[in-house]
């Protein structure tokens, strides 16, 4: 039996094939047209201005500026490589855990645009298509500061020798409490400033109030010697380090203090809140707090700069770093506080590739988390922060599976995270002390806590507000009391 196709069926097939061919040609033509029209001025500059320009601009740490085509074009192939493998913009948190207000990651659409732009010749485009470049206050990301607090005078760093931790106390001259909405630490000499941490030293923090005479220099030296005999740490030149024979507790949660040792003042480091004002390290953003929240600097307080300097071999250097402050325009309701959940007792064995260290903190009252930030050194590999709630529920708050010492990121939740009283915060970190870690100074060495980067640290910083606090009510009460007097 023979099958006969009606003539209209055959004609339909022919037309379909022709139409399909024209469709494919049309699609390819559209793709070529799209590729030809992707330009820096129209398509790429808006992405760079929004996501990259904060660091990639004149005077900042990045190696080139993206504010103009001329500055960007020589780096086109490198930019393509870094955005495709997601090295840039830097973001190391697991995207499946939490939602972050400061998430720097590019969308797949943005990555495709940048890739196509580079592959098609990285064209500049018409000048009329270029949007206005973002504006920055010279030298500051936070805008023009209300007050700039600098080191008292330039510090001279010698040409050779190990890293130095130097401390400088500065009186900002505040006669009444001030509330800081934005704060930024700025290095003067990026060649030698590894990091800056500016602390608030409350008035009378180091003063004797018992009416007894102040100790002599000899008495202070004796007290220090006694402290170092009892402490897990010792002073190595300008650096604080852990004694080789100090007890080892990798799982700090098994200890009553959660894992923290003794600091240079003889106090349990990290157990109390840190009087944090601002910090600088690669990747660390300025502090920009939401409306209603601020950092309080009490009247008469001093600013204490902790400066970590790395030397330039053969070259004496000078530095006079600063902190810029922008004050809150209205009386805030909440004060930002900072907790360091840390372990200072750990020891990483030689060659260990996945060495685990933990620390814990039991939350003493209801609070809301503003940010989370891991801090490890060059052997640091990963950190996870978990909450074990009083009702038995367990939640991962932050997971950083690929920690990068070069980028000290503070992860800011889109919504402040409520943490009830009695919650146990567990911080777990992994370290790679093996030869596979290209940043490892010495895989054959057992590593302990210490300030220099060839030692290690294990800290989970948590900034938060207390639910019970209302600064506005406190201010009203003070004003009423003052008026009655």
Uncertain spans:
1-19, 206-212, 262-272, 476-485
* Average pLDDT reading: 84
Query: What is the CATH level 1 assignment of the largest domain?
Result: Mainly Beta
Main sheet specs? 6 strands, mixed
Radius of gyration: 28 Å
Number of strands: 24
* Protein structure class: alpha+beta
Helix content: 10-25%
In terms of DSSP E residues, the strand content is 25-35%
Tally of separate helices: 7
General shape? globular
* End-to-end distance: 116 Å
Assign the CATH topology of the largest domain: Jelly Rolls
Indicate the CATH architecture of the largest domain.
Sandwich
Q: Provide the domain count.
A: 2
Task: Explain the overall architecture.
Helix content is 20%, strand content 28%. The chain is α+β, with helices and mostly antiparallel strands and 485 residues long. The chain folds into 2 domains: 26-129, no CATH class; 147-204 and 218-471, Jelly Rolls (Sandwich). The longest helix is centred in the N-terminal third of the chain and has 31 residues, at 7-37. Mean pLDDT is 84; it is low at 1-19, 206-212, 262-272 and 476-485. It is built from 7 helices and 24 strands. The strands form 7 sheets. Strands 1, 4, 9, 10, 13 and 14 form a 6-stranded mixed beta sheet that branches. The chain is globular.
């Amino acid at each position: 039996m023979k099958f006969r196709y009606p003539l209209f069926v055959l004609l339909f097939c022919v037309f379909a094939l022709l139409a399909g061919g024209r469709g494919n040609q049309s699609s390819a033509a559209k793709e070529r047209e799209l590729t030809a029209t992707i330009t820096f001025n129209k398509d790429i500059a808006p992405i760079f201005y929004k996501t990259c320009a904060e660091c990639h601009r004149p005077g900042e740490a990045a190696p080139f500026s993206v504010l103009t085509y001329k500055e960007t074009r020589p780096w086109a192939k490198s930019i393509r490589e870094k955005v495709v493998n997601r090295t840039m913009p830097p973001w190391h948190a697991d995207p499946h855990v939490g939602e972050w207000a400061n998430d720097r990651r590019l969308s797949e659409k943005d990555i495709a645009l940048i890739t196509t732009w580079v592959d098609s010749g990285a064209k500049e485009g018409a000048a009329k298509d270029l949007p206005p470049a973002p504006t920055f206050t010279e030298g500051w990301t936070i805008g023009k500061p209300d007050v700039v607090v600098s080191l008292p005078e330039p510090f001279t760093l010698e040409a050779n020798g190990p890293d130095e931790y130097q401390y400088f106390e500065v009186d900002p001259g505040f006669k009444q409490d001030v509330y800081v909405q934005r704060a930024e630490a700025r290095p003067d000499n990026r060649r030698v400033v590894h990091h800056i941490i500016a602390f608030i030293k409350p008035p009378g923090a180091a003063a004797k109030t018992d009416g007894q005479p102040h100790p002599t220099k000899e008495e202070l030296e004796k007290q220090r010697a006694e402290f170092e005999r009892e402490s897990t740490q010792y002073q190595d030149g300008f650096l604080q380090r852990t004694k080789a024979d100090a007890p080892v507790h990798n799982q700090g949660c098994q200890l009553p203090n959660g894992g923290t040792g003794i600091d240079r003042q003889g106090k349990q480091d990290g157990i109390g809140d840190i009087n944090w004002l601002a910090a600088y390290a690669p990747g660390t953003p300025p502090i920009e707090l939401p409306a209603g929240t601020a950092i309080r600097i009490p009247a008469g307080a001093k600013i204490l700069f902790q400066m970590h300097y790395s030397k330039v071999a053969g070259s004496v250097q000078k530095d006079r770093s600063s902190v810029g402050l922008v004050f809150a325009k209205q009386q805030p309701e909440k004060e930002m506080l900072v907790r360091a959940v840390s372990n200072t007792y750990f020891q990483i064995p030689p060659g260990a590739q996945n060495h685990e260290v933990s620390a814990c903190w039991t939350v003493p009252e209801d609070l809301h988390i503003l940010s989370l930030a891991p801090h490890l050194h060059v052997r640091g590999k990963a950190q996870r922060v978990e909450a074990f709630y009083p009702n038995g529920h367990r939640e991962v708050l932050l997971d950083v599976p690929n920690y990068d010492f070069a980028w000290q990121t503070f992860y800011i939740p889109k919504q402040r995270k409520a943490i009830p009283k009695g919650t146990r915060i567990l911080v777990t970190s992994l370290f790679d002390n093996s030869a596979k870690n290209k940043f490892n100074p010495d895989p054959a060495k057992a590593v302990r806590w210490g300030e220099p980067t060839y030692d290690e640290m294990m800290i989970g910083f948590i900034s938060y507000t207390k639910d019970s606090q209302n600064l506005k009510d406190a201010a009203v009460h003070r004003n009423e009391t003052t008026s009655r007097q």
